What we know:
Elements: E1 2-3, E2 8-9, E3 30-39, H1 50-53, H2 57-64, E4 67-77, E5 82-86, H3 93-99, E6 108-113, E7 116-117, H4 123-133, E8 134-138, H5 149-153, H6 155-159, H7 164-177, H8 193-206, E9 211-215, H9 223-240, E10 243-248, H10 251-257, E11 260-265, E12 268-273, H11 275-280, H12 285-291, H13 302-305, E13 319-320, H14 326-336, E14 340-344, E15 347-352, H15 354-362, E16 374-375
Helix pairs in contact: 7-8, 8-9, 14-15
Amino acid sequence: MTDPNTNTAKTTEPTAADPAAPADPAAPAFAVRDLWKVFGPKADRIPGDPAHQALSTAELREKTGCTAAVRDVSFDVRRGEVFVVMGLSGSGKSTLVRTLTRLIEPTSGSIAMDGEDVLGMDKNRLRELRRRQTAMVFQHFGLLPHRSVLDNVAYGLEIQGVGKAERRAKAQEIVEKVGLAGMEERRPTQLSGGQQQRVGLARALAVDPEVLLFDEPFSALDPLIRRDMQEEVIRLHREEGRTMVFITHDLSEALRLGDRIMLMRDGAIVQLGTPEEIVANPADEYVRDFVRDVPREQVISVRRAMRPADAAESGSGKELAPDTLVVDAIEAVASSGEPCRVVEDGRTLGIVDHERLLAVVAGIDGTLADTEAVTV
C-alpha cells in the first residue's frame, strides 16, 4: 500500500486505541487507508475484485448495477491543518467526508481518528465521536426555527447534557466570536443567509470539537457573503489552530483556505498537495484544466521562482523570505530596481529577478523546482 502523504510504501494499518487515553500528538487527526464506498447490490464484492476495480464508473454501473462513490482512497489529515477536498459534482467528496464519522458506512478500508479505529467503534463510542470530537457544518443550515440564535448555538451542548446556565454562557461566548453579538434572541427567519451560516458555524464550535468538518457550507451564499465566511474560517483557524476538513467544488475557495488540497475525480484521488504544488505542477490534464485560469503569481512562492546566486549577488540586495508570493516579489523587485535575495536563517538560497518572476506569471516556470505534490 502507498502512503499518499509521503509517496512511500507503508505496510501497517491504523490500530485501535483506548478511547479514554489522551490522543497521541504524533498521530494524524484522521488516517484513511484503502477506503471504498460502493452503492448497489452486493457492493462488498467490488473492492476485493481486481476485474471490477479496473472498470470505469460507467462500466461498473452497467456491469454490476453498483456505483463506486469512493475508490481506494488513502490519505492523512494532519493536526491543525485545513485539509480541503475538492472536485466536481459526483466526484465523491461529500460521500467521503461523511464516511469519516460513519454518517455513511464505508464498504471497506480503514479509518482512524487519533489512532483509534473508527470502524470498530460501537454505537455509544461513535455517538461520543460525533458529539464531542467532531462537528459538521452543512450547506443547508439545519437551524431549529422555533429557537433563538443563542439556543440554536447551545443545542449541541444541550445534547451533551450541559446545564442551561453553562451552555448559554458558552453559546454567548461563541456568538460573539463569530460576529453575531446583538442577535442572540432573533429567530433564524430574521437572519440573512450569511448570518444563518454563522449560527451553524457557532453551533459547531460551541461543543469544542477537535475536528471541524465542512460540507460545501458556503456554496448557497452570495459571492460577497461567501467571501466574508471564508475570511471568518481563516480568522478562526488562525486564532485557534483547529483541524478542519473542508469540502468544496470551488477552486478559488480551496486555494484560499487549504493548507493542502486533495483533488478527486470519479471517487479517486487525482492529486494531493499544497496549493502551490498543484498550481505549479498539475498531475494531469484534468488538474491542468482546473488551474488554467489561476493567477499563478498569487499562489506560487519565490522558493520556486529563484535561481542560484553568484558570488557577487549573495551578500547584497533586498531580502525576501522563501514563502513570499511572486506577486509581492514583483513589487519588491520593481521598487528596488534590482534582483532580490531569497534568504532563510541568514543564508541566501537564491535570487529572483524580473526574468524569473515573469516566467512564473507566463506559466513557463515548470523546470524551476521539483514538486512534492503526490499523484495517485
